[in-house]
Structures
1.
Amino acid sequence: MDKKEFFAILRESLEGYVPKEEVEKNISYYQDYFHESELSEKEVLEELGDPRLLARTVIEAYKASKGPMADYYMDQARSEYSKEHSSAYEEEHREEKRKNFFGRVGAVVIGILIVCLILFLLKAAVQILYILLPVILLLIVVKILIDHMN
């Protein structure tokens, strides 16, 4: 695991359990910890341990600091988190619909172009037959006449 993955897991593990400002405060704290440490990134990661366990500790400490009001603040954090993610989901879903719409329009346009190409080729074939048919009939008649004279 690298530092980037550590912070992604820590953030994901905190969001929805503590308010957003508390998430940012903890992320900032551990980023500073990485920055100020004289240890290597790997050593700091080993020292801090599993970010999920760290998040659980932060959540429990937050709940303890709020005492009897902890449930209220936890509900507020969940609400904050779900609003943020639902709007992101809606935006992502809207973009997906937009892509699907343009994909369908593109498929319809390509279908129309293929049908036009087929019709054009059929028209060309009919025109060629219109010119060649009399020539073929004339050749057949000449062949029959030549065969009949021999």
2.
Amino acid sequence: MATGSYRGLDYYGIDGLYTEEERAVRDSVRDFVSDRVMPTIGKHFTAGTFPHELVPVFGELGLLGPSLTGYGCPGVSPVAYGLICQELERGDSGIRSFCSVQSSLVMFPIWSYGSDAQKEKYLPAMAKGQLVGCFGLTEPDFGSNPSGMLTTARKTAGGYVLNGTKRWITSGSTAQVALVWAKLDGVVRGFLVPTTTKGFTARDIHGKWSLRASVTSELVLEDVEVGDDAILPGVSGMRGPLSCLSQARFGICFGVVGAAMACYDEALSYAKDRVQFSRPIAGYQLVQQKLVDMVSGITQAQLLCLQMGRLKEAGTLRPAQVSLAKRNNVSMARDIARDARDILGANGVTDEYQCGRHMLNLESVYTYEGTHDIHTLVVGQDVTGIAAFE
């Protein structure tokens, strides 16, 4: 794959607004992606495989649960965590998705709502990449409306019995523990389910043309028995899974900026080298307009992410503000990937270049963890005070 020497776009000197630690974290992950991810990710995407050999390396670099404290987690700032996601998604959305699920959708709820015993049992091993988790919320018929879930939990003398189906679950068939959200007496609760438990089955979803370098599964729970110690004691209702999704969406907002930067960098390099008629195509007005639109969109998204991170650091960030950034930044990145593919012409649809892979991946990111339309309605409700979901 032609990657060249990657140059991260910083048109407005935003680097100077990051702390020294934030820049150091970003640069270390950027080097890791260049050295370890980029040489093979195209082949994994084509083959539909995930580079499992990188999981322990993620742990060594502190990329699993990086914003958490204790239990072997480094406790970096919100902006540093976002920049980690940015650099990982510069490599591939599937790489960032793995780390996001592990960090924000499984480790975060255990850290926030788990018992001391649960934290000690799971978090240190998950931070090292020795234990992989998955997040079971979405169901075949309930995506944008997760509160309608049909998965149930029934109390027994020694614990709980779970029944239901979850779909579109990242790392579902490779995880050792699944955080399954189910209704117990009509109230949503979280349960930590070892994937070797009798009645638990994970089936991979094949035929994807997006997020191919990511494991996506369907989970089936048929009379799965877990003990009393499986339930997350610190949260009940939809507040639990929704708070996890806010954490993950925060990372997505940064992550897609990395994908957009990768596409811009590739398109700019290609346009300066590709000669048609009398000059490189970068010298033609229509191509320059596309490149300038990319610079504008990326710069706006970088500033939006930075302020979002500072709000999170101050403890004042609201979920609707995350929705605005998710909506804006994913749409921006999707448009840039398409324009980059356009600049590359026929070469843009080959696996020799990366913009086509990012273009396909971003179609999934545009949809998952809240579709573009749903985030539009979240922000609409926030600014008008009127819910338009029904």
3.
Amino acid sequence: MTVRLYPEAVELLLIRLPLVEPFETSFGRTDVREILLVRVLQEGLEGWGECVTDHAPLYSPECNGTARYIMETFLIPSLFQAPLRHASEWLRRVAFVKGHPMAKTALEMALWDLYGQMVGRSLRDLWGGTKDRVPAGVSVGIHPDVPSLLRTVERYRAEGYQRIKLKVKPGRDHEVLTAVRQAFPDIVLTADANAAYRWPRDRTVLVTMDVYRLQLLEQPLPPDDWLGHARLQRAIQTPICLDESVTSLATLRLALRLRAGLIINIKPGRVGGYTVARRIHDVCYRRGVPVWCGGMLETGIGRAANVALASLPGFTLPNDLSASRRYWMEDIVEPPFELQAGGYLGVPQGPGLGVRVVRARLSVGWSQTYWRDGV
């Protein structure tokens, strides 16, 4: 079957979606997500993508404003230049644009969705997934006090999530980890610092985290502190998991060579798309390095793509892929993602993303449509 990806139009939409409860990390608090969506149109089909940027450049240098500018000025015009034979060709097409991986990933996701619909195959099948369901973990933000944190952890434990991840930062680490581990001695527990600590200044604080029997300690140091991570990993028994540090295949190889981390969190938006994410998975799988799929407070659009990615065989640890109601009163897709018995999420089986966007649920702040023929 000959397929040409040559959209007639691309629509960008900015929507606002309130979280069920505030989510706080070491770099900020989110009550309402402003989310940039992408819709590509071709021959009566529509493919959807989600940009994981935020309103401000807090997690990464990108934000909604930069992503919109890069897409409308460079990426969308490049898409209209000539047909693509396959969604995996997208990264080569836009290689001239340096950086901006999240903007590139949003359009790539929409193209994969469109391509899957055109050939009648799910993303799981297109990407070589082997699972019908994937293990789900939950990420718990920084709470104002320990009692409220313990109530939240108990709720998620009772719902059946396979792993609990706590966000930590200097001054909000040992107290909360001690309380949670004492209250729940048998849960699978991880901690995520989002690069909030410094080496060697915080050596004592980090080394003594071994006592909590964490499955992993995620991104304790700044993304470019490779030697600090390597030295810290030699000083502790807890495996370090790298997140913000791994932005490409090259940085992955550097991390593995230095043994700066023993586990990798793969976020497609951070590495520039699902084609690169799958290559990172393949390298880690061949080398026996555990990986899992991280989350960025996605709607059901991004969650569907991430769940399909996590169906690949190397994703052996619980992922930051929670049920829709973990974040949203009402997701913008049907069917929503629901936690299955044992703490799993089902992998969509329909063509493309395998979910349907409910346009009536989109609280659109603005939208702009770009036509291939300049209409």
